[in-house]
From TrEMBL:
Keywords: Transferase
Pfam families, per the entry: Acetyltransf_1
Signal peptide: none
Membrane-spanning intervals of the chain: none
CDD domains, per the entry: NAT_SF
Protein name, as recorded: Acetyltransferase (GNAT) family protein
This protein's record includes keyword Acyltransferase: no
All residue ranges annotated as the N-acetyltransferase domain in the record: 9-163
Taxonomic lineage from the root: Bacteria, Pseudomonadati, Pseudomonadota, Gammaproteobacteria, Vibrionales
Gene3D superfamilies noted in UniProt: 3.40.630.30
InterPro entries: Acyl_CoA_acyltransferase, GNAT_dom
Length: 164
């Protein structure tokens, strides 16, 4: 238990020199979500260009998570969505060796704080029904089922009301 307390967790905007970490994170997250890589190549097509464009936009957050200066994970979220005062979380990813160490709640606090400062009252994300560890975490940490995702058979929308 004591080791957890000594971890230094830092959040840094993605540096495009580390883009291969982004693709690796996205690929593993895709597998965790769906249990296969079918469709990943289509999903990743144009990803580099999207990240480059969004890094210059205040409403987008592309963040690498470091634990004791080791790359531990990646976050992708934005402070807008089709619904008013609602941020959208695209990716919360931790490398396998950093899971279960108590880092995810700290990551959620970072996202909540960032979106709150940006004027959001709520956050929404889409999660695969087969990604049991993610679903367990979200339900335990205040996320509530909203509806099935009409654009993707295997995923559902969840929301989290942000503290005001």
């Amino acid at each position: 238990m004591g080791a957890k307390l000594s971890m230094k967790i830092s959040f840094r905007q993605i540096d495009m020199d580390d883009f291969e970490l982004c693709v690796a994170a996205r690929k593993d997250a895709y597998f965790c979500s769906f249990g296969h890589y079918d469709g990943f190549d289509d999903f990743i097509n144009g990803y580099r260009q999207r990240v480059v464009e969004r890094l210059t936009t205040l409403e987008w957050f592309y963040i690498h998570v470091f634990v004791d200066d080791q790359f531990a994970g990646q976050l992708e979220f934005r402070s807008f969505s089709p619904e008013p005062e609602t941020g959208y979380v695209h990716l919360i990813y931790l490398k396998p060796n950093f899971r279960g160490l108590g880092i995810a709640p700290i990551i959620q606090d970072y996202i909540v704080s960032t979106l709150s400062k940006a004027g959001c009252l709520r956050a929404v994300l889409s999660v695969s029904r087969t990604n049991k560890p993610a679903l367990t975490f979200y339900k335990r940490h205040g996320w509530q089922f909203v509806r099935k995702n009409p654009k993707h058979d295997e995923t559902d929308f969840y929301q989290l009301w942000l503290p005001t």
